């Protein structure tokens, strides 16, 4: 089973989060940018389903290249109930292969491709979704989590 890389990132409050903070099952999802339509949809779906995820023993972290201040704003604006981690240098995103060339409006640029991982307490990647659809992903995630209880 593939291992999630060792990391240390700050959350929106400047607290250091590492692999040691993972629970029995942790959803760690990578998204392009705070306060954009798809990212807001995905974050709010997670927020709205947090009670069910907590019942299943799941911790959730979001990761993007945005600053602590932008994360704080995003959390406050959308009443998010989970931590957002700052990967400003894209080290973790690069290590996982989710920071790569993208294309939009005829332009190529580097950025985070929406990706979700489920990681167990030992750091094993249980499941990986690439090129996640923000609108339908919550249903896939819940179905998977309920299936591996």
Portion in strands: 25-35%
Query: Tell me about the biggest sheet?
Result: 7 strands, mixed
Q: CATH topology, what is it called?
A: Glutaredoxin
Task: Identify the quaternary structure here.
Answer: single chain
Strands across the major sheet, in which order?
2-1-5-4-3-8-9
Radius of gyration: 14 Å
**Which CATH C-level class is it?**
Alpha Beta
Poorly predicted segments:
none
Report the mean per-residue pLDDT as an integer: 93
Q: Quickly count the helices.
A: 5
CATH architecture: 3-Layer(aba) Sandwich
N-end to C-end Cα span = 19 Å
Structural account:
The protein is of the alpha+beta class. It has a single domain, classed as Glutaredoxin (3-Layer(aba) Sandwich), CATH 3.40.30.10. The chain has five helices and nine strands; from the N terminus they run βββααβαβαββββα. It has helices spanning 37-48, 50-55, 68-78, 91-95, 137-147, and strands spanning 8-11, 16-18, 25-30, 58-64, 83-86, 99-104, 107-112, 115-120, 125-129. The strands form two sheets. Strands 2-1-5-4-3-8-9 form a seven-stranded mixed β-sheet. A hairpin with a 4-residue loop joins strand 1 and strand 2. The longest helix is centred in the first third of the chain and has 12 residues, at 37-48. The chain is globular and about 45 Å long. The chain starts with 7 loop residues before the first strand and ends with a helix. 30% of the residues are buried. The mean pLDDT is 93.
Write the layout of secondary structure elements.
Layout: E1 8-11, E2 16-18, E3 25-30, H1 37-48, H2 50-55, E4 58-64, H3 68-78, E5 83-86, H4 91-95, E6 99-104, E7 107-112, E8 115-120, E9 125-129, H5 137-147
Parallel strand pairs: 3-4, 4-5
Antiparallel strand pairs: 1-2, 1-5, 3-8, 6-7, 8-9
